[in-house]
Write a structure and sequence with these properties.
Blueprint lengths: L1 H33 L5 H21 L27 H17 L8 H18 L5 H5 L5
Bound molecules: heme C.
The site of heme C has 25 residues, from helix 2, helix 3, helix 4 and helix 5.
Organism: Mesoflavibacter profundi
Protein name: Cytochrome C
C-alpha cells in the first residue's frame, strides 16, 4: 500500500513536470514567432530616416551639412525582405535618390538648400509609391515647409 502511494506521488510529479515543460516550449515557440527581424534594407531605411530628420533640423537652424553619408550607398545592395526583389524601377529610383541626397552636400549648388533637401525627400516618396506605401505619411513629415 505504501509503495503504491509513493508510485502515485512519482506519477503526479512527472506528470506535472511534463506539463511545465510543454508550457515552456510553447512559450518559446511563440517568442520565435513574435520576433520580427528587420531586413538589412529596413534597417538602412530607418537610419536614413533618422539621419534626414536630423538634417532637416540642422537646415532649419541654418547649419550647412558637409559630408554625404557614404553608408547610404548600401541602398544599391542591402538585402531586402524575402518577398521583394530589385527591378529596373527600383534601381533607377536608388540612383536618383543617391544623386539628390548628394546634392544636399554640394557647396557649389545655386539651388537653395531647402529645395535640395525637399527634392531628396520627394524621391524617397516616389520610390515608396512604387514599392512600399506604408511609411509614406511618416516620410512626408520630413519635408521642410
Ligand atoms: C529605391 C527605393 C527607395 C527609396 C529611394 C527609399 N526607400 Fe524607404 N523603403 C524602400 C523599400 C523597398 C522598403 C522596404 C524594405 C524591406 O522591407 O526590406 C523601404 C522601407 C522604408 C521604411 C520602413 C522600414 C521598416 O522598419 O520596415 C522607412 C521608414 C523608409 N523606407 C524611409 C525612407 C526614407 C526616409 C527615404 C529617403 C531618405 C527612403 N525610404 C527612400 C524603398 C525605398
Amino acid at each position: 500500500m505504501k509503495q503504491l502511494f509513493y508510485l502515485l506521488i512519482l506519477l503526479v510529479f512527472f506528470a506535472c513536470k511534463d506539463k511545465k515543460e510543454q508550457v515552456e516550449t510553447t512559450e518559446k515557440a511563440e517568442k520565435v514567432y513574435d520576433m520580427y527581424t528587420p531586413s538589412e534594407m529596413a534597417n538602412l531605411m530607418n537610419e536614413m530616416y533618422a539621419y534626414n530628420q536630423q538634417l532637416k533640423q540642422d537646415i532649419i537652424e541654418g547649419k550647412i551639412p558637409t559630408e554625404f553619408p557614404e553608408k547610404f550607398l548600401n541602398i544599391h545592395n542591402a538585402q531586402l525582405s524575402d518577398f521583394k526583389s530589385r527591378n529596373v524601377t527600383f534601381k533607377s529610383f536608388s540612383n536618383l535618390y543617391i544623386e539628390a541626397e548628394k546634392e544636399i552636400f554640394n557647396a557649389n549648388s545655386k539651388v537653395p538648400l531647402e529645395t535640395r533637401f525637399n527634392n531628396a525627400v520627394g524621391i524617397c516618396i516616389s520610390c515608396h509609391t512604387t514599392e512600399c506605401t506604408g511609411p509614406i505619411p511618416r516620410i512626408k513629415k520630413l519635408i521642410i515647409k
